[in-house]
Design goal:
alpha/beta; about 40% helix
């Protein structure tokens, strides 16, 4: 099987570690060799959190610069910061709703315009799927389901060999029952937005 390298990037509390773990579970359930790795920054303080999912015959859990097949960004500035992982063939899936860092919140910094960030991302990647994942999560009644929106967009992009049915089976068995309905709705809308 062709190797696929995905990088998930976001801010602590957005759920990208859970998203990468669930994707890994779905791939393993299909018999796909899978490696999942995590880098925890200052997650509890809104810091950067990065994880990677590698599918196929890989020897390292690290995605080096210019190696990502897909970059999934949960926050637009973090997507921009991780752009070095991309190459001309990378597909970027990014949430466009900012979660400004503490320095911006207290007036000691400025958040770059999202449209400028998207322009830079589009100049680097082959395809960019940009969506307001937080608005979608809120629309299904679960503001914490951004990770499900982003997983749905990844599956909907058809860039990896994991399909919607396999992913939904994992969501049904590995997420809290109280949030299952809203998680599945968020996943479905994310899939639709990727087409």
């Amino acid at each position: 099987m062709e190797t696929k390298r995905m990088v998930f990037i976001g801010v602590g509390g957005q759920g990208n570690l859970l998203a990468s773990r669930l994707l890994g579970e779905a791939a393993l359930s299909m018999g796909i060799p899978t490696v999942v790795s995590e880098i925890h920054g200052m997650a509890q303080r809104g810091g950067i959190v990065e994880s990677a999912v590698l599918l196929g015959d890989v020897t390292s859990p690290i995605v080096s610069n210019a190696e990502a097949d897909v970059l999934i960004g949960f926050e637009p500035l973090e997507t921009l910061r991780a752009l070095g992982k991309c190459n001309k063939d990378t597909v970027v899936i990014t949430n466009i709703r900012p979660l400004p860092p503490f320095t911006v919140a207290i007036g000691q910094g400025a958040y770059p315009p999202v449209e400028e960030s998207l322009r830079l991302i589009r100049n680097k990647a082959r395809r960019v799927i940009a969506l307001d994942g937080i608005a979608i999560a809120e629309s299904v009644g679960n503001p914490l389901s951004l990770n499900m929106v982003m997983l749905g967009a990844l599956i909907g992009s058809k860039t990896i060999p994991v399909g919607a049915d396999q992913m939904k089976k994992v969501l049904e068995t590995s997420t809290k029952k109280a949030f299952l309905e809203s998680n599945l709705k968020a996943f479905d809308i994310g899939m639709e937005k990727a087409n």
